[in-house]
Amino acid sequence: MKKSIILIVMDGLGDRPAEVLRGRTPLESAYTPNMNHMARHGISGLLYPVDYGIVCGSDTSHLSLLGYKPEEVYTGRGPFEAMGLGMEVHSGDVAFRANYATREGEIITDRRAGRIEEKTDELSNSLSMKIDDIQINVRSGVEHRAALVMHGPGLSGEISDSDPHEVVRPVRTIHAMNEKSEKTARIINEFLERSRKILDSNPMNIRRKSEGKPPANELLLRGAGQAPFLPAFGEKYGMKGAYIIGIPMIRGIAEMIGLEKIDVPGITGGRNTNYVGKLKSARENSEKYEFMLMNIKAPDAAAHDMDPAGKVEVMERIDEAMENLIGIEDRALVIITGDHSTSSTTGEHTGDPVPVTFYTGSSRSIGAGGFNERECSRTGFSLKSGSLMTYALQITDRLEKYGA
Ligand code: ZN
Ligand code: ZN
Q1: Are residues 16 and 340 in contact, defined by beta-carbon separation less than 8 angstroms?
Q2: pLDDT beyond 80 at 124
Q3: CATH architecture, domain 4-74+229-395
Q4: Which entry of 47, 156, 274, 339 is 20 to 30 Å from 110 by CA?
Q5: Does residue 233 contact residue 259 with C-beta atoms inside 8 Å?
Q6: Ligand 1 center to residue 303 CA distance, Å?
Q7: Residue 23 in this model has a pLDDT that exceeds 90
């Protein structure tokens, strides 16, 4: 039997030296004996997300890690933002990023409805409707933010925004950019017409007006994109795959390629997640599935909070849980890496490469002194994320000969 592949993506793993850590990165500062063991005995080096120097979002980088070329399949942020709010998005659906805004007559006077703090869930729920054969759903995010998904046949993402992008400007009619997007434009304009009446008569908006607050009476749409038609993972690689993921956006990608969900109680997609539960579950399921994708969001969350010491703590908690995978190398290939670097000094993603280790018993080893940016760069081994799956298939003897 061929070894199963367990791909563990520590989100925002890589970092830069921080002054508060005396010139070391969080990963260099953390006590990580288990990952160091893997790095010493595995094939270790640096992984470049998508390509050299590209500053990736988690969406493009995960697609690339799974062997889907973002330059071919990535169609804009809309569908991925909608997935990020936990909305169901199917291949072919068209999704927008949306803002609740304030409209007086035709004119947008506040693009964020005063950065509305009241919950807008009820507004969003009231906007779900079917026009012809297209189902439209809206879901609220934080403050004024929301997303809209159109589901049904014959849609196209090649349409303009209704968002004028500045005040004080009239709201725009959405235009089709070509013939095949005419249906989409017609239906979404019809939706906007109807939504204005619904929002104007909503009790919360009537009350806000009477209190002198800007009402949330326009849903501004921008960044339309059509969810890509991705070949199913099982067909692409001939492996039965599953995922263990807390954050909705990456879960959405995993669902879209047909990975099965492994439920682990207490996983949150945040820093307070059930680290041990996740890694234990990977071990327990390593015979049932030939491939597992795990995302651990916590390092990225700590870095966005500009908390280098917090990122150190997160890495140590992950390492403790990683003990569950020591000894599994006879029946599985464990890949530990990240989807991109996130600087805990600036709180932003960077284009720096991330450490990677392919940990398995039988392969040749390219050992690094430890699992961190500096030690992994010293081996001289590197690859781009788009080659990761091919490399993993090779190590687990799944590749056919190329040539005679
Ligand atoms: Zn990420
Ligand atoms: Zn991030």
Answers
A1: no
A2: yes
A3: 3-Layer(aba) Sandwich (3.40)
A4: 156
A5: yes
A6: 11
A7: yes
Full-model pTM: 0.90
Distance 301 CA to ligand 2 centre (A): 7
Question: By C-alpha distance, which of 278, 294, 207, 225 is closest to 7?
Answer: 294
Task: Please say if the pLDDT value at position 133 is more than 90.
Answer: yes
130, 136 Cβ separation under 8 angstroms = yes
pLDDT of residue 156: 95
Residue type, 41: H
* Average pLDDT value for residue range 94-105: 96
Residue 315 pLDDT > 80: yes
Assigned token pair, 255: 């669902």
How many angstroms is it from 260 CA to the middle of ligand 2?
A: 24
Residue 362 pLDDT > 80: no
Rounded to the nearest angstrom, the distance between the alpha carbon of 250 and the centre of ligand 1 is 9
Q: What's the distance, CA 293 to chain centroid?
A: 13
Residue predicted with more confidence, 269 or 210 = 210
DSSP letter, residue 30: S
- Segments making up each domain of the chain, as ranges: 4-74+229-395, 80-226
Q: Which residues contact 274 (CB under 8 A, 6 or more apart)?
A: 264, 265, 266, 267, 268
Which residues, listed in sequence order, are joined to residue 356 by a DSSP beta bridge? 45
What is the rounded CA–CA span in Å between residue 259 and residue 248? 14
- Compute the average pLDDT of residues 250-263: 94
